[in-house]
Hints:
Layout: H1 6-27, E1 31-36, E2 41-45, H2 47-53, H3 58-61, H4 80-94, E3 96-104, E4 110-122, E5 125-134, H5 136-158, E6 162-166, E7 172-175, H6 177-183, H7 187-190, H8 202-216, H9 224-232, E8 238-244, E9 250-261, E10 267-276, H10 278-327, H11 333-363, E11 372-374, H12 376-393, E12 397-402, E13 410-412, H13 414-430, E14 436-446, E15 450-459, H14 466-469, H15 481-487, H16 493-503, E16 507-513, E17 517-528, E18 548-549, E19 551-555, H17 559-571, E20 575-579, H18 582-591, E21 596-600, H19 608-621, E22 630-634, H20 641-647, E23 652-655, H21 660-667, E24 672-673
Parallel strand pairs: 12-14, 19-20, 19-21, 21-22, 22-23
Antiparallel strand pairs: 1-2, 1-5, 3-4, 4-5, 6-7, 6-10, 8-9, 9-10, 11-13, 13-17, 14-15, 15-17, 16-17, 18-24
Amino acid sequence: MNxxxxxxxxxxxxxxxxxxxxxxxESSRDAIxxxxxxxxxxxxxxxxxxxxxxxxxxxxxTTLGPWDVSPLLQPDGERSADKAPKVIRQAMExxxxxxxWTHRRINxxxxxxxxxxxxxxxxxxxxxxxxxRDISEQKRTEQxxxxxxxxxxxxxxxxxxxxxxxxxxxxxxxxNPAAEHLLGYSAEELVGKQTPxxxxxxxxxxxxxxxxAAELGIDxxxxxxxxxxxxxxxxxxxxxxxxxxxxGSRLTVLLTITALRDPEGTITSxxxxxxxxxxxxxxxxxxxLAKDAAEAASVAKSQFLANxxxxxxxxxxxxxxxxxxxxxxxxxxxxxxxxxxxxQSAASLLTIINGILDYSKIEVGKLQLEHTDxxxxxxxxxxxxxxxxxxxxxxLSLSVxxxxxxxxxxxxxxxxxxxxxxxxxxxAIKFTVDGSITVSADxxxxxxxxxxxxxTVCDTxxxxxxxxxxxxxxxxxxxxxxxxxxxGGTGLGLAIVKQLVRLMGGTVDLESTPGLGxxxxxxxxxEVRPDNEIASVIAQPEHHPATLHGKILLAEDNVVNxxxxxxxxxxxxxxxxxxxxxxxxxxxxxxxxYDLVLMDCQMPNLDGLKASRLxxxxxxxxxxxxxxxxxxxxxxxxxxxREQCLAAGMDGYLTKPFTVDQxxxxxxxxxxxxx
Length: 675
C-alpha cells in the first residue's frame, strides 16, 4: 500500500490546523476579527463580534473598519481615525500589540475594551487578528473600588481620632493624619517600619501585661500581644493608655482595638482608634479635687456645727437647768416672773439654735427621717396644747378640725411632722394680731397602704404681699425687714418646713391676701397600718411618777452641768456619785456597783465614748457581771451622734439642754420607779 507523500501530509496538517482554528474562532467568547491592508477593513469575524458590536450579521460587519466602531475621540483626546493607524503599525512592526480602546456599538453607546492585535499570514497575505474583550464591567468595578478607596482615605484623612492599623505581627500599616498630629510622627517614619510600642510607655506595658495575664489566666510577655490578645479571643478591648509623643510629652488616650478578619475568620490586621482624653482626665481630676474639697468642707462644716452645738448647748443647759431648778424653789411673785422670763428667753434662743442646726443638717444631707407609728389626733392635740397659752395671751381663737376619714394609726416621722406643725401654727399666732387660727386635717386620697394627708393652717393675720410669696420659703427670707424688726425670727422656719415636707415626699403651699390673712397647706403621704398589725397606738404623753429608785454615776466635767444634773437626779429620788472624766468613771465602776451611768461624751483625759467601750470590754471578760446601762449625755445634736454613742456600747441618748421630764424619760427604762 502506497504511503502518502510528504506534500500530502503537509496539506492534511494544514487542513486540520485550519479546522481547529476555525472551531476556536467560531466558539470564542471574545470578539475576533481579521484585518488586511491596504484598507484595513474587517474581512471576517466570529459570531461574538456581531453580538458585541450590535451588527446585523457577519456580512454587515465586514463592510466596516476600526474607525466605524470607534467614537470620534479616544479618552486621551486623540481622534480615533488618527490613532488607529498608529496601533496597527506598531502591531505589524512588533508582531503584536495589546492596549485599551474605547469602542462604539453600532447605533449604540461607547464601551471600554482591551484589544490584542496579532500579526498573521493567511494564504500568503499578512494582516492582523484583532481580539476584543468588553471590560465595561471591569472598569465599573475598578471605579467602584477607586471610589471606595478614596472614600476610605477621606475618612482616614479627616477622622478626628487617631487611626492606626497593624499587621498580625504588629508592624504599622496605616497611620492617619490625626495620628500624625497626635503623636508628632509622620506616617513615612512608622508605616512598614515600627510597631505601636514606639509610642507606648514601657513600664505601663509591663504593668498591663501582668494585669491582663491575671485577668485572662494565661502567660503573657510584654510586647505587641499585650495590645491585641483580647481581640484574638473576641473580647472587648477598650482601655486607657499613656502615649508618648515624639517630643517626649505624654497624653492619655482611650484606645479601642479591633481584629479585622477575612471570610474564613483569619485575622488580617488589627485596627486601633485612639481618642485623646487628656483634657477629660484633667477635668475629672479637677472635679475629683473639687468633690474632695467640697466633701472636706462639708465634713469641716459638720464638725464646726457639732462643736458649735456643743459649745452653745453647754451654757444653755446651765441657763435652762438652773432656771428650772430655781422655779422649783420658793420665790416671790416678782422673782418668779423674772425667772420665768429668763426661761422663756432661753427657750426661744434654743429654738433658734435648733433651727440653724436643722437647716444645716438638711443642707448637707444628714437629716434622716424616722418611720414609726403615730396618732395624728394626739399629735395635733399636743401641738395645740403647747401653743394655746400663747394664743390665749394674744386673745386669739385657736381651733383644730380633724376629718374622721383619717385612720387612727399612721406611720411616718411624728417628731418632724410635729416640728412642721409647730412652726406653721406658731407663725400664724405670731403674725396674727386679732381673730383666729384654724387648723384642718383631711384625707385627700387613701388606699390599702397609704393616705395623702392634707393639713392647712388658716389665720386672719397680716398676710403676705404677692411679690414676697415666691421667696417666703427661701432660707433667711421674710416678707420685709420691718417684719423681722416687729415680730422677730431668723427667716429659717419656713425654709426648714419646706425641706422637711420635701423629705417626707410631700409639698407645701401658700395662699395669702395682705391684711386678710394667710393659709399655709402641706400635703404628705403617710403609711397606713392595718388593724391586725397595730400593736399599740402612740398615746398622749403620760404623767410619770415623780421619783425613781437607783444609784447613778454621773460622769461630767463641766461644773455647772454637774450641779444641774445632780440637782435634777436628786429631785427624781436618785443617789448620785460624780466622776469628772472617763478615767474616774472606769475606776468608780470597778470599785462598786451602779444601777446606771449618765456619761458625758466630751470629757478630758478619756472621753465618754472610749470609757463606754472599755466598760463593755471589762464586762465581756467577766461573764458574771450584768450589763451596766449607760446613757449618753451630750451637747451635740448632729445626725450621726446617736449612732456613734450606740456603736460605743451606750444604751440611751440625752441631748443638752434637758428638762427634769426629759431626764426622767431617759432613765426610766432602766430604773425602778418609786411606789
